[in-house]
Amino acid sequence: MRRLFGTNGVRGITNEKLTPELALQLGKAIGTFFGPGSKVLVGRDARSGGEMLLRALESGLLGTGAIVYEAGKLPTPALQYATKGGEYACCVIVTASHNPPEFNGIKVIDSDGIELDESKEMQIEEIYFSGKFSLEKWHGLVHDIKKKNNIISEYIASISRLVDKNTISKRRPLVLIDGCGSVGSLATPKIASMIGCEVREINTKLDPRFRSRDPEPTSENLKNTAEKVLEIGADFGVAHDGDADRAIFIDSSGRVQMGDRSGALLAAWAAGKNARSPRVVYTPFSSSAVVEEHLRPLGIKVEFTKIGSIYVSRSLLKNGGIAGVEDTGGFIYPVHQYVRDGPMSLALMADLFSHNNATSAEMFDRLPRYYTEKTKIPLQNINFASLLERMNEKYGSAGRIEMIEERGFKFTGKSFWFIVRESGTEPVLRIGVESKDADITKAKMEELKRFIGQ
Ligand code: MG
User: Fold this and answer.
1) Is the pTM higher than 0.85?
2) How many independent structural domains does the chain possess?
C-alpha cells in the first residue's frame, strides 16, 4: 500500500502536509533512486507554494549528485514532451493539477514522458521512509542548476506542426481560452493564434491563489466562461485545469461538454488524420458509452482500461492506437505524445472545427445523448465483498458484472450501466450511472443507493 504517493503523485495542503521538509526529503529519495549523475528536469505550475517546494526539491536532488535542469513555470504536458525523448532520467513537477487552491503536489515522470508506475513509486517511498539516502561527497557537488528556457517554445512549435494551419486560418474560428489563472495561459493562446484562430482570453493572468475560478474545470466552475462564450459569440471555448493536461470545451450554445463527448469527436477526427494507426481507442471504465457508440460505426474498437490516465497512456504506448479519452477532459494524441495534453486538444479541436461546415453546437449535437449521474456515499458499515455478492444476485442475470479494480466493479446492462468503486483518496464509495433516458438514470441511482445502504 502506498503511503505517500496517491494516484497522481504526492498531494496535500501546502505547508501542512506538503512542507519544504517533505519536498527536501523527497528530492533526496528521488535522487537516490535514479542514482548520482542522473539528469533531472524540474518545473511547476503557478500555484502558491510552488517556488518554496521547488527550491527544497532541487536542493534534495542536488544533494544526491543529480544534475538539475529547471524549466520554470509551464504546462505539465510541455514538461512531459521535453522528457519523452529519454534525455532525462526523470522529470519532477510541482503541481496539484485540478485540486483546490490550498493544495500542492509533487509528481515524478519517467524517462518516456509518462507518469512513473506504481512499483517505482513504491521504491522511492521506501527510500523516503527509511531515510537511507545516498548523498554525494563534497567534491561531487559542483553542478549549478541549468536553466532550460526553450521548452515551451519547442512544445508550441511541435503542436502547431500537427494541424492544418491553412484550413484553420481560412475559417478563422473565434476561440475563448480559459487558462485557469495558471500555466495553460503560457501556451494555449500562443498556439491558437499561431495555427490561425482568433483568440479571446479569460483567466489567463497567472494567479497563485486561483481567485478567478476553482482549478477543476467542471460545469459548475465554468459558468462565467460559458457566459463569456455566448457574450462574444465565440465558435467554442476551451478551459484548462491548473496544470493544463485537461481541456474541457464549451460549445457555441454555451454548453460545457464533458471530456468523453469532446474526446469521441476528437478521436474520430484523429482516426481520419492517421489512417495507419491501429483502429483502437483507450478509455477508462468510467467513460460514457458515447465514446463507443460514436466510434464503433467508424470501425474503431474501444478498449476500456482501469481508471487513471496512466493506464490509458501505458496501453497506448504498448499496443498503439488512435487516441486516449478521459471523461474529465484528458485527451491523449499519441502522434504528439502518450499523455494527456490540453493545448494539443485545443489545436485538434480547431482543426476538426475548421474542416466542418457546422457550428460547434451542431457538431456536439450529432453525438448520441446520454444521461449520467455520479454520487458518493460514506463507506462505514459497507463490506465490499458481500456487496459484490449481493450485486451479483440482483443484477447478474440482467447484464455483465466485471471487476475493474481490486475494489470496484462495473455493471453493463441493456439499457443502463453503472460503476461502484471505493475511492482511493477518501472513505467513500463512488457510484456512477448512465443511460439514454434521464428517468432511468435517476431511478437506477436511487435504487442503487437504497440497495447499497441496506
Ligand atoms: Mg491536471
Assistant:
1) yes
2) 3
